[in-house]
Amino acid sequence: MIAFLLMGRESGSLDFASFRTLSLSLGLASAVFLLAFFGFGAKAGMMPLHSWLPRAHPAAPSHASALMSGVMVKIGIFGILKVAMDLLAQTGLPLWWGILVMAIGAISALLGVLYALAEQDIKRLLAWSTVENVGIILLAVGVAMVGLSLHDPLLTVVGLLGALFHLLNHALFKGLLFLGAGAIISRLHNHDMEKMGALAKRMPWTAAACLIGCLAISALPPLNGFISEWYTCQSLFSLSRVEAVALQLAGPIAMVMLAVTGGLAVMCFVKMYGITFCGAPRSTHAEEAQEVPNTMIVAMLLLAALCVLIALSASWLAPKIMHIAHAFTNTPPVTVASGIALVPGTFHTQVPPSLLLLLLLAMPLLPSLYWLWCRSRRAAFRRTGDAWACGYGWENAMAPSGNGVMQPLRVVFSALFRLRQQLDPTLRLNKGLAHVTARAQSTEPFWDERVIRPIVSATQRLAKEIQHLQSGDFRLYCLYVVAALVVLLIAIAV
């Protein structure tokens, strides 16, 4: 609001049309941009203003979480684009604006997926994944802003193409995963993935839809997440064309961070799918789970089908998004798709369309053919038995857990995590495996512990100190009104 009030003071109106005609000084324009960026960034869930997001999603119903993640947080992205590339376009974009957006996007993406890996609550995991994907979108937005600063239409359009494409794709596959999580929770009445397991046999349609969602969010071909992250990668590669040495270094660094984020995202959703749908049931509810009603299945399958169709129609959809980018930034047209090519024709990383089609078809088929070949070579007989449990009776709780998957990363990135212990007297009396699992159930992000909570505590102390101003005395309230009127008159006179 302060950013818009500053622009309104300069233009004499709060109409967007009047904002577009402003030519602000660099200092004032930077102040407006920073206020709008962090204000809308808080709504988008970018770091370091993300703390509300992992708390809001588990508390909301799953269909509301799908809407929040798919639509509401994108309003923050739209606000950043609107202010930086539209309302302040007349002033001009300094180069450091785009670099700042890229840096915060890269940090949000990497830390978001790390914290997602540490979660055992299925909805909190998806919420942290939203932080990660918002970071990926901001990476592409930053590249587009750098392109506007350098008057490079190709860089601008490809960056916006990656951002808008991923914005659309994230709404689809994250909505699908939240609906899948809602279907699971409706049957198991629990958010904890450690209490799930073996649901693929009991909820096959839900498992199939969630598998497509996990593959899409992991940016694996031939699904839509791969296409938008491919464009984002191309926009980062294109920074090598820029003469500025800082950007030539920033591009590879951001590319490495995006690649690491992608690898961790695959690990995160392998963990989520494996712990939830595979293995042995870890609770009574998991053993007795049944498939959800057909209406819920149809909603998930529709989103799963869209994830596949958008990927296959990417070269048709990319020019449509390209025209939106042209209209939004007033840049000259450039070609970003030809036939089924997914990259601009001027890029040295282009893949021939015929080879690309074969790759998209072969990638999902080759693992299936390899599995059939391995199965045909097995012996005619098979011996089955219980897993060896060191001489003790086997329990389903002994199966590999999400904490075991996360343990190496928790050690490597121990500075970023803080163990959140749950003090349950009944579990402490048992001193069994459940007690150990409960103690290591989840982690507390370093940022929340060291930065956000002290700010919240200071705000609460300040509010407690000034609460005496609201004493309930009507005469005191009249004095406040008169004092405010006097201050306003003095301000107008000056």
TrEMBL record:
Its top-level enzyme class, in one word, is oxidoreductase
Q: Which residues form the NADH:quinone oxidoreductase/Mrp antiporter transmembrane domain?
A: 2-247
Give the GO cellular component terms, alphabetically.
Answer: plasma membrane
One GO term of the biological process aspect: ATP synthesis coupled electron transport
Which UniProt key words apply to this protein?
Answer: Cell membrane, Membrane, Oxidoreductase, Transmembrane, Transmembrane helix
Residues passing through the membrane, by range:
20-42, 63-83, 95-118, 125-148, 154-185, 205-227, 247-274, 295-318, 354-373, 474-493
- Tell where it localizes: Cell membrane; Membrane
Q: Does the keyword Acetylation apply?
A: no
GO molecular function, one example?
A: oxidoreductase activity
> What is its membrane topology?
Multi-pass membrane protein
UniProt cross-references to Pfam families, sorted A to Z: Proton_antipo_M
Query: Does the record carry Nuclease as a key word?
Result: no
Supply the EC number(s).
1.-.-.-
- Identification of the protein by name: Hydrogenase 4 subunit B
Species per Swiss-Prot/TrEMBL record: Shigella dysenteriae
Q: Which gene encodes it?
A: hyfB_1
